[in-house]
Amino acid sequence: MQPQPHIPPATANVAISAALKSQRARKNRGSYSCGRCGQPKKGHVCHLPPLDVPSTPIAPEPVTSIAAAASSTRSTVVSLSSAPLRQSFTNLRRALSFDDDVDARDETDLTDLSLDTEIVQPGRFHAVGLWEVLKRLPPSGLLMAARVCKGWRETARKMWKAAEELRIRVPKRAQIGYVGSLLQKCPGLVTLTLKLESDFDATTLACIAFSCPNLEVLEILTCGAAVNRISGDELGRFVSNKRGLTSLKMEGCSNLGGFSLTSTSLSTLWLSDLHSLSKMIFNCPNLIEISLEFSQQEGDSTDLVTMVDGLGRTCTRLQNIHIASLKLSHIVVLALTAVNFRCLRMLSLVLGIDITDASVDAISSSYTNLELLDLSGSSITDTGLGMICDVLPDTLSKLLVALCPNITSSGIQFATAQLPLLELMDCGMTVSDPNSDNPLTPQKTSGYNQKMFIKHKRMKKLSLWGCSSLDALFLNCPELKDLNLNSCNNLQPESLVIQCPKLEIVHASGCQKLLTVAIRKQVSENFAAGENHMTRKRLADGSKRIQAPPSLYQETREDDENYPAKKRRKIEREVCTIID
Predict the structure, then answer these.
(1) Domain end residue (candidates: 162, 186, 210)
(2) Any idea what DSSP says for residue 294?
(3) Less crowded by CB within 10 Å, the N or C end of the chain?
(4) Domain boundary at 501, 530, 559, which?
């Protein structure tokens, strides 16, 4: 054996290092050891600087390095610049947007997220594109996308962190920490909507209070057999602790028992399914809109007069009031008028059977600037409608008098003629047959057949649902877009005239088949008469314009191959949707 020449230790170390470095540079996949120090990757955090790798431009614009690795591939991202270019975005509101129609205000500010300069290899997928894809996913899809790789998990984390609005559905079998785990990902959350399929208690409410320090809008919806177990004391503590809360909407409030709400920021309050409240204290000086819906169960012991008096003392800025209760009466209306809310613009008192024309007189004399008045379910008559028309002709734009059996077609016609600013009117179940308990059952009683003629320049929505005694209808409303004729089963096709060229939706469920055919025919004729697609030509001397004959126009449009098919479809499309 020939003796080997002596190699100095320094030279040997250099050679070994060069060999190891060359070996690491050639290994692009399948490595389970750190590329810097050689230690196993599992549970290892390397503190050595990255190896010097020749930089090759990956994209035309400068990029910064981010940590990205797939399950079986080691990706290397090279930093080419420390001052990346940034793209400016304006009108940015929320990060989690999973609506079908996405516009500019649904985007999220990418300037503070450093996403426009990030590239995830080996697919070289820009994080901006990844952001645009992930922001259209619902929360469940975003959670699944975070499991793909580290790059996707980091982008999803930034998206959760930047989220300002979140709408989630809590399934029936959800665990206790399901809502908390999601909310902890969104420290900047401003608007939260929960659709509950499981029970809602104080634990979840406390989790919301702890995880969302900047919460301003909270909406809790219940569906199915879900039960809201929040008590009045727990709700009061939540409202007082959330000093930035401006809007609270909650369903299923049957277990409150009584409450005292104190807040200087709360401006909107909606509570539904209330029942037998022992006390209702509202210490909210900036409250603008309140909606209280009581359950229709028997034995409700709520004192509405005391409640209205309390509102008048502490919530003087109220503009919109909605109360739905079977205990509404003339005494409650008198208490409401005695308070005299100076800023009141919308008043809704629903299901008050004991509200009469005297109540209308009190309302019209105290509140002369109302824009919306809803007295559905009351006992007012045509005389009450006349009082409304005498006092509110210059302000009232929305009038709802559904389920008022003492109103006739003459009163409705008079109201539409005397209220020039009226845009919405609901007269459902007013002109109905008193002998018919079911409005869906046709009743041919000639003694109650009524006719209605409505001509209005600004009416946009008209509802006549359940008017089973209506057998003739004439409408001349050039701005009408929505018409509800559900269960008008006595309305005759030959007695129907619709002159509404802008009509978009007609509800005709429970009507005769011939009536539906007549509606479709008249709507098509109105559209054809209102739209003029005929071309105009100029004479040779340019002194006059003439209209081309219809036959020439149709032949030219149909035979011309260059005429876009999209425009032909636009002309021929059905402009009005009839729901039967």
Answers:
(1) 162
(2) E
(3) N
(4) 530
Beta strand 268-274 with 247-250: parallel, antiparallel or unpaired?
parallel
Residues 175, 178: Cα–Cα separation, whole Å: 5
Contact 114, 84 (CB under 8 A): yes
Instruction: Say if residues 70 and 57 touch (Cβ distance below 8 Å).
Output: no
The reply to whether 525 falls in a domain is yes
Domain assignment of residue 136, yes or no:
yes
Q: Which residues contact 102 (CB under 8 A, 6 or more apart)?
A: 136
What digits encode the pLDDT tens for the residues 570-579?
Answer: 444 457 888 8
Domain range for residue 517?
448-530
Cβ atoms of 449 and 490 closer than 8 Å: yes
3-state secondary structure of 106: helix
Question: In the predicted model, what is the mean pLDDT of residues 559-579?
Answer: 57
Q: Are the beta carbons of 358 and 330 closer than 8 angstroms? A: yes
50-73: per-residue pLDDT in tens?
Answer: 544 333 332 333 222 222 222 333
Distance (Å, rounded) from C-alpha 474 to C-alpha 480?
Answer: 13
The two beta strands, 505-507 and 577-579, are parallel
453 burial type by CB count under 10 A (0-12 exposed, 13-18 middle, 19+ buried): middle
Q: Which residues contact 267 (CB under 8 A, 6 or more apart)?
A: 246, 247, 286, 287, 288, 289
Q: Is the pLDDT of residue 482 over 50?
A: yes
Q: Would residue 509 count as lying in a domain?
A: yes
User: What residues have CB less than 8 Å from 231, skipping those under 6 apart?
Assistant: 202, 255, 256, 257
* Helices 330-339 and 304-314: angle between axes, nearest 10 degrees: 10
Alpha helices in 212-351 (DSSP H): 232-241, 304-314, 330-339
The pLDDT, as a whole number, for residue 128 is 74
Which of 73, 72, 79, 74 minimizes the C-alpha distance to 58?
79
Distance from C-alpha of 554 to C-alpha of 561, rounded to nearest angstrom = 13
**Residue 40, preceding peptide bond in cis (omega within 30° of 0):** no
Task: Please list the alpha-helical segments (H only) found in 248-371.
Answer: 304-314, 330-339, 357-366
Is there a contact between 403 and 380 (Cβ–Cβ < 8 Å)?
A: no
Q: How many CB atoms are closer than 10 A to CB 256?
A: 25
Q: Do 208 and 233 contact (CB within 8 A), yes or no?
A: no
Rounded Cα–Cα distance for residues 337 and 356 (Å): 15
Residue 477 belongs to some domain of the structure: yes
Could you give the 3-state DSSP secondary structure of residue 426? strand
Look at the chain and report how many structural domains it folds into: 2
End-to-end CA distance of the chain: 102
Ordered DSSP codes for 475-505: EE-TT--EEE-TT-TT--GGGEEEE-TT--E
The angle that helices 150-162 and 127-134 make with each other, rounded to 10 degrees, is: 60
Neighbouring residues of 384: CB distance < 8 A, sequence distance ≥ 6: 356, 357, 360, 361, 375
What angle, rounded to 10 degrees, do the helices at 382-391 and 357-366 form? 10
pLDDT digits (tens, 9 = 90+) for 228-283: 999 999 999 999 999 999 999 999 999 999 999 999 999 999 999 999 999 999 99
- Cβ atoms 377, 353 nearer than 8 A: yes
- Among 521, 448, 441, 449, CA closest to 489: 441
